[in-house]
Amino acid sequence: MNEILQISDTFIEENTVFLELVNELKKMFSSNEVLVPMRHHHDFPNPELKSDSTLLLMPAWNPSKNAGVKIVTVSPENGQFNMPSIQGTYIYLDAIKGSIKAILEAKSLTVKRTAAASALASSFLSRKDSKSLLMIGTGALSVNLIKAHASVRPIEKVYVWGRNYEKAIRICEQLKGENYISFPVKNIEDKISEVDIISSATLSPIPLVLGKYLKEGQHLDLVGSYKKDTREADDEAVKKSSVFVDTYQGGLKESGDILIPLQRGILKEEEVKADLFELCTDKKQGRVSSSEITFFKSVGHALEDLTAANYYYKKYTNE
Description:
By secondary structure, the protein is an alpha/beta fold. The protein has helices spanning 9-14, 18-31, 106-125, 140-152, 165-174, 235-239, 248-251, 256-264, 276-280, 302-317, and strands at 5-7, 40-44, 53-62, 66-74, 86-94, 100-105, 132-136, 157-161, 181-184, 197-200, 219-222, 242-245, 294-297. The protein has a 7-stranded parallel β-sheet with strand order 9-8-7-10-11-13-12. A 6-stranded mixed β-sheet has the order 1-6-5-4-3-2. β7 (132-136), α4 and β8 (157-161) form a beta-alpha-beta unit.
């Protein structure tokens, strides 16, 4: 039996070049080679904490090449245990033999591929001259989203907001060596009308991005709100925007950011402009004018996990 490699978060953190990962994702979204069933999404009760947890199973196959499955739990109340709300493992497989090639820590793999997918979308949807970004949220994704967006756009100023202002300060300190200046902000509305890109990655049950503050030409990147009854942007933001999703398969069904406007008649399915498959294959256009407000909703897709696992496996084995 072949040795099963253990690829740690530390290795993933130290060996990510976002532009490389963005380009790998673009290649795979363009190829139409990967088979991805609808992910399993199971909410299960956690009566001790009076809050549901979620189990996600995300398989994907690139026939005769590679395969894998990510197993993730989301427990929003884990802060009280000083543990991350999202935990998981990725099992990377030989698609021919069915054997396990590697086990990767899913935390870093997930945040890296999620951030890279947002940057991939931004390369089609944000203005090419986008120089400022507001990051809403101070979790594990925030630093990665900032770095990923800055890999595809000439970002000069970053503003960071979190419910805990001290965390926003710490995020900015982590970014001190980058080619842009980062500032913590105490109120979203202080900067939301000024920036070119707004990226939001929170577990907020209510909208934090309000349409009344949006200006022409902005790009919204919504990464949080993974449940059907939660959302990060309000109806007004949807009304003012051209809406895009990472995939129709998950984007139209899994998050309140899209599902609630659909249910209310604010948005119709046919009004969703494109997904990443269509953007990457040039079947549909992204941004069409400098005044357009673009709205990208990401819920995650197993193709992204498999692509990232393959990227890190090759780096680990020097293939």
